[in-house]
């Protein structure tokens, strides 16, 4: 066998594209959302309810709440898998329906389940790390978001937020890099292993560092806007981002014959 032939576990070929392509992903995500609004709203409502549940349960436990919402962002690519399938059907000129979403979740694809499990572990590790940091730094004095804000402007809280953001970014960066296109790739191609999909995602980020950073910022800002609206806007934001992520995958990963 020639050394030039790709190995089964090698990363797939990726493209280098312009950073402003992220705006097109959002536009296409909105288009797909409007093509199948009830499916998108169903996903968005389910995740907004879950976010509201986290807010309700953790309101008096801010040390855990901050990490829980961050962890929520890490596992979101798994939760919107059905929307990737909807976008694929629209791209193929077919009419998607709830059967499209059901077909994805009822296949019990072991690869997607494994990657979802890895995302859940990453999210859980961050929740524990975040809670431990806030509790240790504040000596357990913070219980509500109001107390957190009050502590932040006090002399004792100097540096906490900055360190929390830096630590969170350091832990989230490799997760983001390994998950940018992984879940839609696994859903779209049955011949790709989890390892190969993650390697392809890392290669896509390494090839497009500015674009990837911009996209991560867009996702974070829009999600925070959704959270800031007491989950109301999250009902629309999350499905649009889910559809947009499918188009990110199609742009970044070369579809080999």
From TrEMBL:
This is DUF2189 domain-containing protein. It comes from the Bacteria. Keywords: Membrane, Transmembrane, Transmembrane helix. The chain crosses the membrane at residues 38-56, 62-86, 112-137, 163-187, 208-241. InterPro entries: DUF2189 (IPR018692). Pfam families: DUF2189 (PF09955).
């Amino acid at each position: 066998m020639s050394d030039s032939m790709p190995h089964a576990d090698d990363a797939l070929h990726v493209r280098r594209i312009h950073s402003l392509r992220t705006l097109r992903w959002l536009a296409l995500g909105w288009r797909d959302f409007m093509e199948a609004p009830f499916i998108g709203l169903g996903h968005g409502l389910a995740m907004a309810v879950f976010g509201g549940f986290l807010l309700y349960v953790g309101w008096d436990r801010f040390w855990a709440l901050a990490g829980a919402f961050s962890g929520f962002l890490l596992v979101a690519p798994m939760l919107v898998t059905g929307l990737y399938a909807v976008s694929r059907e629209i791209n193929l000129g077919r009419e998607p329906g709830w059967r499209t979403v059901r077909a994805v979740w009822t296949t019990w694809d072991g690869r997607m389940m494994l990657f979802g499990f890895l995302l859940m572990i990453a999210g859980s590790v961050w929740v524990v790390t975040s809670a431990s940091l806030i509790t240790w730094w504040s000596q357990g004095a913070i219980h509500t978001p109001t107390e957190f804000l009050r502590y932040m402007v006090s002399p004792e809280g100097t540096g906490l937020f900055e360190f929390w953001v830096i630590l969170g970014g350091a832990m989230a960066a490799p997760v983001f890099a390994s998950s940018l296109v992984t879940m839609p790739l696994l859903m779209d191609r049955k011949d790709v292993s989890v390892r190969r999909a993650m390697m392809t995602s890392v290669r896509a980020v390494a090839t497009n560092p500015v674009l990837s950073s911009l996209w991560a910022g867009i996702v974070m800002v829009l999600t925070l806007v959704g959270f800031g609206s007491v989950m109301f806007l999250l009902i629309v934001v999350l499905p649009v981002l889910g559809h947009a992520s499918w188009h990110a995958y199609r742009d970044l990963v070369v579809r080999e014959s």
